[in-house]
Amino acid sequence: MVEPVRGGVVVDRWERARGRTGVQAPSWLTFELYRPYLDGSDSPAAPVHARSPLLAARLFELRAPLAPRFGMSMPASFRTLLHRESGLREHRATDPTGLPGPLAGADWRKLTTAFVRKDELDSVDRVGLAYWLIAVCLHSAVLDVVPADLADNECADPVLANLQLARATALFAVEGLGERTRAAYARLVDHPLPTPAHAQALAAYGYLLARHADSDADAPLHLGRAADLLKRMVTDLPAFDHTLLTARLRLRESLHAERAHDLDRATGVLADAAALTAALTPESPEESLLALEMRRRVLDRRADIAAKSGDRAAEDAVLAEAVALDPTDIKVRVQLAQAAERDGDDETALAGWLHAARLGPYGTAFALLGAVGAARRLGHEEFARVLAERAFRAAPRSTRTREVLLGLCADDEPLAEVVRRAAAPDPGRPHTGNWHHRMHAAYFDLGQSLSPGLYADLPTLAHGFAERGTPPEPHWQRLMPPAFRANLVRESGLDEFAVDHPAQLPAHLRTPAWDRLCAWVEEFPGADAERRYLTAAVLFRLGFGKVVLDLLPPVPVADLGADPAELRLRHWRDVVAYVGGVGTAVVTPTASFEIAGHPACPTHLRFVIAVFAVVFHARETRSPDEAQAWRDTAEAALVELLADDGYSDFEKKMMESRFYRSVTYVPFLRGDRDRLTREMDRAEELARALVPSTPYEEFLARENLRACLESRSKEAFALGDTALGARRVAEVLALDPYEPKTHMEVAEAILMGEDPDTYAAAESYLRTARLGPIATARGYALAGECFERAGQPVLAEDCYLQALRVDPYAITAARGWRRVGGACGMGGLADEYATTLEAWGAGRQTRRP
To answer: Does 832 fall in a domain?
Structure first.
């Protein structure tokens, strides 16, 4: 597969992939496979059926209204799936004008001009435009070109008859075999005339009756009348056209016989179709495309009939020919996987199903479910669970994907409930049928998150305190990464939630809680410090850190006055700025450091800032002296707080536990192991001694113990006691089995053991990826490395590709994919991808100032 070209310029795959995540395959791969549908341009990777728009555009240009088009058109749902599964939201369109001009190829722009002028077009160009719209799956737009059925006498004109056939074809794609579709076909099949359109309409309608009607009794009649018409037109049509249309009719007759379980007749008629196809002698590029499509369709039917007949040798031969002819078609890959499955070769079947699933969108979930079955038979239960979740995300309305996933959630009722609720969206709110929205609704719209994870409802928790007008004391400790919301929205595909400010969220997506937040933000400049703090806390928890910084421009601490609420608000601004800079640029919280020395700073705020400062210096400056100085400040404040009768026993123990967990960075920096262990023992002792009396305190106690044990596991690993570290990680996991980061720590603990089980580590990394979006790509990439080391190249290959689906720039994953790409039959693409990504990265490095 080579880099696609648009207008003589190489399209930048990496820029196109930025900010987009496909449901199952990387967005760049889906684009390269189905580019003719997306922007009307050619792509070397396109399967045969995806070249239909190219032929239709060429025939429009040639003004050839009677020339055959492709015999198979994709259903209207195909384009919907294409948009949803690819993540290429800017390519969404319901008519040609919906695609922004810079994204459109030359053919698309030309046909858009024709569509805008549709009322001025003559019948020849209307035919060409209508069939191009069918080819790119814009069927509803065809009804704008042909808004009503033509009269019987108009259908006597071969060109207008073709226009009527385009309307009937589009109506079936949009409405199925309903009243309007039957009426549209009736114009051509009730009184057939010797025109190509009438013959094709009879053949198509006969097949539709056989496949979609309550009764197929009339199907043979229509197929027979089509044959009679073609016999009458043998001298009227060009030889190529007549042979092609006859071959297509035989193919439909074979399909009808196969559905009637008459395999002998199906085989015989299909042999006629194959012979006619072999006799085609194309004399133009357009005819060559038509012959190619006919060959592909015949091979498809031959493979299916050979499978049903149990003729394994014939099936192997046909599939070998089909995959050579159309290597990127999902159907032939499915047929290969099914053949391997019938042979009992589950390893090959699994690789085949995985290969097929990434060639969707049509059939993605079906292929993934096939992979689930193969994985389970091979004993890869956790891998099967991941595949089942991906299948459900691709087709959440499918009973089959839901039932398979529920079966794998038999021991996980909280996530089983997520599946059930996502399969039944709230009325008028279709986005609630999205897996990620059901899991993390709080971060999307301040709704109810169904994730049982400890941190799933932090935004709504903050919103609840804001509604009551009282800040939480004590506060929880977890600060979600700044990119969490962006990653969540991108991985979910719910791009309407990709807003930079709460007020930008469309009204139909808002909850009452979101509307209240917008009101608080609007009133922010005139609100008191307490209300501004509460609002800023909600904004930050939702991932709107920049909005907080914009609403609170820096102010010299000397100008803040003596209001403790204002001092706390300004410290919160520093926290938001610091967290927003993690991983990019260190933002020193200088205002907070000054606030701690302010005469009006309350003892508790000084304590909080001092503890924060110890952690900051330990992580950023690595200065033991600075950390010690702030530890002394925190310790003095703690003595005052513990002597204050205004604090409960729960609050005092919580403050002291948090103190020791944070300030032990000082003995860590100084290499004082004994003191480090002694003080961490005290932090854990206090964490375990907490006796909560309210649900909020229960949450705080659980969160604090979890954080304490997480720190203690790192302490044990740092001191070389891997067994103790692993036990502590296991306890952290028991406190919150749905935290992705903990599963990563479990995997790391496994790998630190004396005899590491890389397969078990890979499964833990898979759970990290499954419970994302935190570290989804990293979890997949590390799972790939472990599966590779465990001698499971098929599983490793899928994990590396899934890492690239989420993060197309992950060079380590790309190199891993290159190493094992051949395991699922994509070795050439994997090598090309890694090589071009390396070149792209090197180019960016050289362009940096």
So the answer is: yes
**Is residue 91 a contact partner of residue 136, using CB atoms and an 8 Å limit?**
no
What is the token pair recorded at 610? 């001092």
CA angle 739, 744, 745 (to 5 degrees): 95
Strand partners, 426: 429
- Tokens standing for residue 516: 């209240």
* Torsion angle in degrees (nearest 10) through CA of 215, 220, 221, 226: 130
Nearest Cα neighbor of 238 from 274, 275, 297, 281 is 281
* Residue numbers of the domain that contains 618: 602-738
| Cβ within 8 Å of residue 419, ≥6 positions away | 392, 402, 405, 406, 409, 435
Residue 181 lies in a domain: no
Q: Give the pLDDT confidence score for residue 12 in this predicted structure.
A: 63
Is there a single domain that holds both residue 734 and residue 745?
no
Please name the helix (run of DSSP H) or strand (run of DSSP E) that holds residue 521, with its range, or none.
Answer: helix 512-522
HSE on the CB side for 784, CA within 13 Å? 28
Answer whether residue 314 is part of any domain.
yes
Residue 9 DSSP SS3: strand
- Cβ count near 787 (within 10 Å): 29
Q: Is 74 among the domain residues?
A: no
State pTM to two decimals. 0.93
For the segment 272-300, what is each residue's pLDDT rounded down to a tens digit?
Answer: 999 999 999 999 999 999 999 999 999 99
End position of a domain, from candidates 328, 351, 367? 328
How many domains does the chain divide into? 3
Residue 107: both structure tokens together: 């053919």
pLDDT tens by residue, 481-498: 878 999 999 999 999 999
Q: Within this chain, do residues 701 and 779 fall inside the same structural domain, yes or no?
A: no
pLDDT tens, residue by residue, 399-428: 999 999 999 999 999 999 999 999 999 999
CA distance 572 to 559: 17
